[in-house]
Specification:
Helix content: over 70%
Oligomer: single chain
Distance between the termini: 25 Å
CATH architecture: Up-down Bundle
Number of helices: 11
Largest sheet: 2 strands, antiparallel
Number of strands: 2
Strand content: under 5%
């Protein structure tokens, strides 16, 4: 058990180090290319911080652990939004958020996850054709990011006065992603061992321990973004990571092997994922900013969710 705790701490240290430099590199790229920080957060940063979820779910699918593959994805969305975004918005609510940056991503997210809920109820699974469609939707999402990036506005975010080497910053990003991945692996592996020793069911492990462990890159990135004064990077990271969770974390395992869905996933996890995203995004779309009340509500929802999952 001592070794497990030590490895857990090492994993946390790797994630903190990777997250710190990841934010700096992302902001440098945004300033150099005159791209809004929220766009960089929703694309480059979110892809890097979502890699642990993608790898965990793909591995789980090959091992036949469907509950982990599906539960990890939707549990991560709930964790990203209710815990991480809730915590960050409670500490420092987002201000001056560009409407265009949020609007189309919100519509995209709810259309895709709504269709996934309908498909799940009808078929009880995400089969290979569904997985292929999700991967095609990822290509569409990537194209939309390129298409709309030039028209997305965000007051006072882009700064280009400092000399920045783009190749160097992308190299730093790559190194940081490796640190995040290795750190998350250590955290998840040891967290699962502890949970299994306590007799926690597989689905609960997926939507709590694994979801929280694989969401730690998003958590660290968001908190560091707040500390450094780049809150929109963290917000964009959460939104982008949630979209990638349904497109890739579900899409890849489904395309490879198919995923059988548990009733609890359809009745609780997916509806709750939609609900917490609505709590986060709808007020921002209306007011162009968030509030601490949103953050507190999201944290309350996550607390109740964890209690109910264990009970």
């Amino acid at each position: 058990m001592v070794t497990t705790v030590v490895l857990f701490i090492v994993g946390l240290a790797l994630i903190c180090a990777g997250g710190d430099r990841l934010v700096d590199a992302a902001v440098a790229i945004a300033g150099k290319l005159n791209i809004p920080q929220i766009v960089v957060g929703a694309t480059i940063v979110s892809l890097g911080t979502t890699l642990p979820e993608i790898l965990v779910s793909t591995t789980a699918a090959f091992d036949g652990s469907a509950a982990i593959a599906a539960g990890n994805a939707f549990g991560s969305i709930i964790c990203n939004t209710a815990l991480i975004a809730g915590l960050s918005q409670t500490i420092h609510p987002a201000e001056k958020v560009g409407f265009a940056s949020i609007a189309w991503r919100t519509v995209f997210f709810f259309i895709v996850i709504g269709l996934m809920e309908i498909c799940g109820f009808i078929t009880g699974s995400y089969d290979r054709p569904c997985g292929v469609l999700l991967l095609l939707a990822f290509i569409m999402y990537a194209c939309l990011n390129v298409r709309f990036s030039s028209g997305e506005d965000e007051d006072g975010d882009a700064e280009s006065g400092e000399e920045v080497s783009i190749p160097k910053q992308f190299l730093i990003l790559a190194v940081c992603v490796v640190l995040l991945y290795e750190g998350a692996n250590l955290l998840v592996d040891n967290g699962i061992l502890i949970a299994q020793a306590l007799g926690v069911p597989e689905r609960v492990i997926a939507v709590t321990f694994i979801a929280l462990g694989t969401s730690l890159p998003e958590l660290v990135t968001s908190l560091i973004s707040l500390i450094k004064g780049y809150g929109n990077v963290g917000l964009g990271n959460i939104i982008g990571a949630n979209i990638l969770n349904i497109l890739l974390v579900i899409g890849i395992p489904a395309a490879v092997q198919g995923i059988i869905l548990e009733r609890q996933t359809l009745m609780v996890d997916i509806p709750l994922a939609m609900a917490v995203m609505a709590v986060l995004l709808v007020p921002i779309l209306i007011q162009r900013k968030s509030s601490r009340i949103q953050g507190l509500v999201l944290l309350g929802i996550y607390t109740v969710y964890c209690i109910v999952s264990f009970v």
